[in-house]
Specification:
The structure is a homodimer of 276-residue chains. By secondary structure, the first copy, chain A, is α+β, with helices and mostly antiparallel strands. Chain A has 2 domains: 2-71, Multidrug-efflux Transporter Regulator, Chain: A, Domain 2 (Orthogonal Bundle), CATH 1.10.1660; 119-272, Alpha-Beta Barrel (Multidrug-efflux Transporter 1 Regulator Bmrr, Chain A), CATH 3.20.80. Chain A contains 8 helices and 12 strands. In chain A, strands 4, 5, 6, 7, 8, 9, 10, 11 and 12 form a 9-stranded antiparallel sheet that branches. A 3-stranded antiparallel sheet of chain A has the order 1-3-2. The longest helix of chain A is centred in the middle third of the chain and has 44 residues, at 75-118. Chain A starts with a strand and ends with a strand. The A-B interface holds A 47, 51, 54-55, 57-59, 72-75, 78-79, 82-83, 85-86, 89-90, 92-93, 96-97, 99-100, 102-104, 106-107, 110, 253-259, 262 and B 47, 51, 54-55, 57-59, 72-75, 78-79, 82-83, 85-86, 89-90, 92-93, 96-97, 99-100, 102-104, 106-107, 110, 254-259, 262. Chain A binds a DNA duplex (30 and 30 nucleotides) through residues 3-5, 14-17, 19-20, 24, 33, 36-39, 61-63.
DNA sequence: GATTGACTCTCCCCTTAGGGGAGGCCTTAT
DNA sequence: ATAAGGCCTCCCCTAAGGGGAGAGTCAATC
């Protein structure tokens, strides 16, 4: 016979926990002094204590453990209980994996943005690849882009392959611009669109040569960068055409508005060789 | 301005939860009617609510979320918080994976036992392979095997490769037998033994030809099976030698004593061709 | 025999993130 | 004006104990 303290040391279960197990009828000491209420445990209980610890380590709740202890005699039953528990654990693992991926996505994006920040921000001539996107065309101000993007993201789900951008069809500044928000996706998404909200369209955007310039800072200042890139294009003897693109490499994030001074936008402008 | 009910529908957060967020200072409605205490939310709060939901989905506690909301302005800080959280999630995943493996181990063993049960239980002549084990030699009764095995299991950890068995060095029945408990392991375990408790020894057991018989039922009845196998060996003109083995394919499990009528023990007896 | 220190008892409060419900006040539609 | 539904606060409940208070108990020492 052991006192509760001795038994606690033997089984590596705290005294508090042992009292709880007693209260809940999981592990009743084999003798209780009726005058003092002292609990005394026998050797036999050590084995039970071990079973409880093991089941607890397997994520069983105390109620479940009690159930197992009282109602399971047959091996087959025990195995089915264990199999159920394992299924639940595997499900938990999968959902945690999803969370981890989601965080990964954010971290990766941030790292890319950091890398880009350290690059020069000079006008560059780039060959853009063909790209598959879902798009939504609308009219309004740049700041409404968020609304369109939300819908696109929900449609694409986990098939997003790149960073969102807008196409601008106006060659000069307009208060209410016509634009098309684009989200690069796997081509499989085109199947998901059948019969759905027809304002969202799957497209293959052709690539080609574009003049590009990174604009770092709040969107309100983007005029400066536009001036810079137009000047450069003209100096090269080319003529800007449409649609131009604004790639929102880093903007108000999924979580926070962030710091506008660190927003990164890539302006991409197509051109023709002809003089205007 | 939205009432709490409208805001709840917009954000998919229950009214109860919104009130808790208010109490804890996570999300304060932008206007509170001082005479009625009615909460009114503005559009601005929708964004915050979304941030809170997102962080909750990422396993942040309310305290952590409040901390993030109040104290994090810099992107770099946010990323480090996310990275920390991800590390913790990955750790959780790994520990769940361990639990799942442990359950797997039990389920697999049980399935094997079931398969064996359906086989015949006749005396068979088998070629046993060489095998690497850790062993502990001791004297006592069969029923003390559990004690030795516990130590072996703890030593081997996840490098266990097979089912535990005892070697018997006495050729006749003795109250206090000399026996050696063996646990098949990967040879890598031999490294872990250096400088440790020297009663545990790493060995390569040679295989060879053995007469074998499955004993199904409680250990007390094993005498019957021994009689059967000895008789068979004699009938074949061979002489039993030592050490004989008892493989505890299924016994009192890691969790429960189980049903002794379903215990499975394989008796393995070596022999010489000479007559005694 | 008495004291003392270590042990044990019960009881109460606290933790997460709200859920359920009671009782009472408020708003809005008919 | 009335009724329905919305909103308020307050209280209890969850799982698995941890922390601590106040009181009683055990065993050894003086």
């Amino acid at each position: 016979m052991y006192t509760i303290g001795e038994f606690s040391r033997i089984t590596n279960i705290t005294v508090k926990a042992l009292r709880v197990y007693h209260d809940k009828g999981l592990l009743t000491p084999s003798f209780i002094d009726e005058s003092t209420n002292y609990r005394y445990y026998a050797n036999r209980e050590i084995e039970f204590a071990h079973v409880i610890s093991t089941l607890k380590a397997m994520q069983f709740s105390l109620v479940e453990i009690k159930d197992v202890l009282n109602n399971i005699n047959d091996d087959a039953d025990l195995m089915s209980v264990l199999a159920d528990k394992q299924a639940k654990i595997i499900q938990d693992i999968s959902s945690l994996n999803n969370v981890s991926s989601a965080i990964d996505f954010i971290l990766t994006k941030e790292k890319e943005a950091k890398k880009i920040m350290t690059n020069t921000n000079e006008v560059t001539l780039k060959q853009l690849p063909n790209i598959e996107v879902i798009t939504q065309t609308w009219q309004g101000q740049y700041s409404d882009t968020g609304k369109a993007i939300g819908k696109l993201y929900r449609t694409a789900g986990r098939h997003v392959t790149g960073t969102v951008f807008n196409l601008y069809f106006d060659s000069e500044y307009k208060e209410i611009a016509t634009l098309e928000s684009c989200l690069p996706v796997k081509s499989i998404v085109s199947n998901k669109l059948r019969g759905k909200d027809s304002s969202i369209v799957f497209k293959k955007l052709p690539g080609g040569h574009y003049y590009t310039l990174l604009h770092v800072g709040p969107y309100e200042d983007i005029g400066v960068s536009y001036a810079k890139i137009f000047q450069h294009i003209k100096a090269c003897g080319h003529t800007p055409t449409t649609p131009s693109r604004e790639v929102y490499i880093k903007g108000p994030g999924m979580l926070f508005k962030g710091n506008p001074a660190k927003y990164i936008t890539e302006i991409q402008i197509p051109f023709s060789d002809l003089l205007p």
